[in-house]
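Lab notebook, bench 4. The sequencing result for the construct came back, and we need a structural model before the next group meeting so we can plan mutations. Quick request posted to the team channel:

Model the 3D structure of this chain.
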Amino acid sequence: LIFIAGGDGNDQVIDTVARTAQVQTTDLAPDEVARRDKLSALVRIDAEGGFIEALPVNGDFDRGAPLKLTLAHPTQAAADRVLELQPTGTGWRADANIDAGNDWKLQLEPMDAQWRLKGRLPKGQLAINLRPSLQAD
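Done. Here's the predicted structure in token form:
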């Protein structure tokens, strides 16, 4: 019980979840697209510059379109942030001051939500490689 009360087992879920009786379901199609297209991206917080950026690592991204980055606080939904990252010469960027004093659950996706990449940014860490939730066979 102590582990559950103070540990990582109580994170909120970013995905839209449908409930039927006792069963919870979510749409995994965006995760499948990201896996199939082998997408990954690095998200980096620049605290001094006051911005956050996403840099493509692998896969074929639409470099002219903005991306949506969701930063979900693991326990306080009121602290969640949703940013629209605009295309730059190297990736995508938005002005933002992000508190590195707690963990964040990140989700990166295009505005039409056709694919998504996820990851967890631990407290004090300023960069993370986001990947598809579904892994290759």
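The radius of gyration is 15 Å.
Will bring this to the meeting.
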